[in-house]
Write a structure and sequence with these properties.
Elements: H1 39-50, H2 52-66, H3 74-117, H4 123-133
Helix pairs in contact: 1-2, 1-3, 2-3
The structure holds zinc ion.
Amino acid sequence: MTCTNCGQEISDSAYVCPYCGARTPISYQQPVAPPANNDMAIAGLILAFFIPIVGLILSCIGLHNSKQMNGAGRGMSIAGIVISVVLMVFAIIFVIVYVVVLIEVLNAVADGIGDQLNDPNTYVGLAAMVRAKLPF
Ligand SMILES: [Zn+2]
């Protein structure tokens, strides 16, 4: 191409004229696209902490989208997937422990009531005895 400032023939890929230093038309073009925002990856990472199952789904979509966005949000998507999976595993373990403890407590309470039913010195046992003597 020809320099618009000095008229010298210069390389088509030159950003600046090597003769006069003037900028060439291509130097005004954006050489690389600005990094795109991977909104799904951002939403997925945030929701991973609050609603892990939704965070996991959005992070998977974000990871999928990042392939068409020059890898934008890829790390964030992977972080969102890892965090949501870890939190879901913790939640499952918590529920299992909670149910086991609840069953233990209910068993202990049931045992306690069973023992008291046969002991007239307790309110429960006394009530059971009185109830047994009632005709209705
Ligand atoms: Zn020039």
